[in-house]
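S.,

As promised, the S-adenosyl-L-homocysteine run. Input:
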Amino acid sequence: MTIRPDIRTLTLPQLQEVVAGLRQPAFRAGQIAEWLYRRKVASWAEMTNVPAELRKQLAERYDLHALQQATSKLIPGEAMKFLWRLRDGQLIESVLLKANPALYGQASDRRTLCISTQVGCAYGCKFCASGLAGWKRNLQADEIVEQFLASERWLAGQTDFLPAEAEPTAAETARGISVENQVPKPGRLIHNLVIMGMGEPLANYEALLQALKILNAPWGGDIGARKITISTSGLAPQIRSLANEPFQFRLAISLHGATDEVRTRIMPVNRKYPLRELLAACDYYVVHKGKMITLEYVLIEGINDQLEQVKPLAEITRRLHAKLNLIPYNHVAGLDWKRPSESHQKDFLNALLDRRVPATLRQEKGHDIDAACGQLRLRTEGSITPQAPA
Ligand code: SAH
Ligand code: SF4
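Predicted complex:
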């Protein structure tokens, strides 16, 4: 069976080439992009102003595959976790939150979507549900893009996740949304994207960048690069590559250990890219992009939450001029790790603040809905093999 690429793996210039190859005027590519990204249609039939013959030719060459919702969990008005079924039956997750976990995780009327980039994860961090069942495959660009489109489709039918009226996107404002065709007004339903779902985004570099190009473009998702945060467990060479790309994405580093000893114990990737190498790549990113990095630090009782960790953690944060986001460990079924008591979390935070480190403690949203990455999939797919600390 020949597998056709999905139409949403293409950027607008690539779509224009396809349309030109079919001897159609270039504006047809713009119309198709409008249907795909502004109106988020899930079928060719809905593209009513595109000639039927062109739709037929495109359908013969390209898929337009909408993600199927396998299951979901909702905390009304707060968080929604989707479990999506892909064409080949694999399951991935996205989480919609009324907050931005990458930006201090405060309660907010902004909506943030956390998306996946792989089925499972090969990096096997010892506290993480995504790594437990191993790595299955990379997502294609359209599967990354469609998590955003499908979530906006769902949001459009909701009332408790929406403000009174959806905001026009920047591109819509620029060209005046009222002159658009006679379709329901689209608008900005998701304000921030965080690439913090299942998988290691920088291990699926090409597809990730293609998807983010589409989601960032004014003709596509129209989400500003500054509203997009990529989180990585610390793939040093790819951090450097990202620094050389012409995009101003935010970068979050899953640090979780301020010494090689602690970090290697819970993150096998630290053997390949120890702190010295990781921090040098972060320096490179900061210098080349002129952007502040966020450091993520999951607090796990007795593993990385001792007060003597504060000094090296403060040194790393200051060296990188970074912000530090402390995240209480989210329990994963089958793993023995514990989150520290609230009073200890606060002591750890205060010790950092005393050293003038710009640190915050995440007020967890979605804790009740298995929101830590990989957990819903794990529960749905069944058994796991717990891993002991190294
Ligand atoms: N692979 C990337 C992005 C996905 S993980 C990365 O590691 O950065 C997104 C974030 O969730 C990471 O900071 C990860 O360490 C954190 N995380 C994973 N399991 C968790 C858990 N059980 N509790 C709290 N945070 C967790
Ligand atoms: Fe993979 Fe990130 Fe989970 Fe580590 S924390 S196993 S890199 S998804």
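The chain has 14 helices and twelve strands. Residues 102-107, 176-185, 378-390 have pLDDT under 50 and may be disordered.

- D.
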